[in-house]
Amino acid sequence: MEHVQEYPPPVAPSAYQPLATRVSVIGPEYCYPQPVDLAVVRKVLTISEGKFAVSDINGNIMFITKGKIFSIHDRSVFVVQSFSDIALFQIMTVHDRWQVFRRESTEEKDLIFTVKRSSMIQLKIKLHVFLATNPKENVCDFRVEGSWLERSCIIYSGESNTILAQMHKKHSVESVLLGKDKFMVTVYPNVDYAFVVALIAILDGINHDDDE
């Protein structure tokens, strides 16, 4: 059954201009002509024991992780679901590689993209993202750079300076009360926000792997 988006886009700031080409990775239904502001809250324990939830600016939950399904021999799988998709996609980690598959599959034909560190030793985050249609992985399709500790990460298109999304702290009374486990992500116009959520889930997994 075709996905029906249930969440209206937030009001678009005039400062953002849509990209000339739509960036659709998970699906075109997750691309809006306006920027999308997402709030990420870690350690959500009330809905399916999720590790974090992603909501819109009105507080409506859009995605939530189900945590690790299994972990054996340096391999783990966890699912990110939306409230209109039981299993939107799932992420498998194997030896410092993160693979994102459609729905509940882990078969090669259902691979969407792969994420790798640009180098094993990193003071700050630098990840390379390769679409399944780019199996040689000579040049990355997207990259993520920044500091998870400072909640300051940017997602770029390939090796360019074109920004697709950026993570930032939200300085408000609410964010102070919720503490460091809440931060904001702004997804630029015409960029697949479910794809951005997948990258945030991977970043969360990398930086909280021992946080059981």
From TrEMBL:
InterPro entries noted in UniProt: LOR (IPR007612), LOR_sf (IPR038595), Tubby-like_C (IPR025659)
Family statement drawn from the similarity comment of this UniProt entry: Belongs to the LOR family.
PANTHER family: PROTEIN LURP-ONE-RELATED 1-RELATED (PTHR31087:SF160), PTHR31087
Organism this protein belongs to: Gossypium mustelinum
Protein name: Tubby C-terminal domain-containing protein
